[in-house]
Amino acid sequence: MKKKLLLHICCAPCAIYVFKKLEEDYDVTGFFYNPNIHPFKEYEFRRKELVKVARKFDWKVVYADYDMKRWFQLTRGYEKEPERGLRCPICFYIRFKRTFEYAEEYGFDIVTSTLSISPYKSTDQINEQGIKLSKEFDIDFLPENFKKKDGYSIGKKMAMGIGIKHQNYCGCVYSIVEKKLKERNKPLFK
Fold it and tell me: What is the pTM of this model?
């Protein structure tokens, strides 16, 4: 019998490759909890795209609450941090903690995340938060790097093949600002 794995999902394009890869060895349930995604219109777009993909592939996915206020409270003081800076581990911790709480409540054996498929994210930061919470909850964490072996490109092609497009920023309001400033060749913060 396969172990029950709860997969934190950041978005549909990242989930396609990761979910399919994990299904080979685990009984996978997706968990969409991303209070970092802004604006709400973008959050809803990403959620609806995941609903489409989950229906297409007959995935089990749980859609948790959108607790934007809590995310802002816990990341306060880190607004000027760049992508991969000190704010990101806090964001991962917030999302993973909710994922582990759900895993504990519903008897999952292991937790992991699609986040490590992104070339814009630090796999070390992601796995560090997962391992920390694994010890706290006494539930295994699968420390993966799904971008290895061209995972990101393969996943992107898979998503495009079914009409799902990749987003052009991580999701948080600060990453939007950072991206727009870079496009204008301006420093992030003075």
Answer: 0.93
